[in-house]
Amino acid sequence: EPEVTQTPSHQVTQMGQEVILRCVPISNHLYFYWYRQILGQKVEFLVSFYNNEISEKSEIFDDQFSVERPDGSNFTLKIRSTKLEDSAMYFCASSPDRVIYEQYFGPGTRLTVT
Amino acid sequence: GESVGLHLPTLSVQEGDNSIINCAYSNSASDYFIWYKQESGKGPQFIIDIRSNMDKRQGQRVTVLLNKTVKHLSLQIAATQPGDSAVYFCAEPGGTSYGKLTFGQGTILTVHP
Known about the structure:
- Chain A is mostly beta strands.
- Chain A is built from no helices and 11 strands.
- Chains A and B meet through strand 4, strand 5, strand 9 and strand 10 of A and strand 4, strand 5, strand 9 and strand 10 of B.
């Protein structure tokens, strides 16, 4: 069964550094998402992406965040200057063309900012 | 504002028992709800959904009940198994593109053999 993959599984970085989290969505999906989950808290929406542009973003997704689909398979989340409070689990998700409610999540990347 | 939340943060059951996980929502205009399961070290996994024009929907060993009068939904798991141990979230799609999922706080289900 096809699945969303994410790399790395764990990323440790120093405050102020740039990080890029990578995702490979399910191949025939057209909608892509990033969510984050701070330890012990609920999953929070960051951004949705369709047709090579951002569809919607949350208040969390400020100028320090950006997303890109550099080729036909990868979907990346970049944090330009990480802060301690960016430490969280970051989940990528994708969904088929019309059934956008049924989002398929990857296993997540744990980002630790020190 | 809109919110989707859970009554109980933890639930412990014995294998074979039925489990009921609850969720409250605040927006009476909400028309679609989804239950996700998150196992340790994994991302959320879609379990079942329900539209507001339904009161009940059944899947394999799972049933979701929706009570629009009190803005409450529940997930019932029949004959709970150790593999059902996970965090369960209710979620609601929204946003301008309707792809933005708003998750509740989550309930930790622990199934004891």
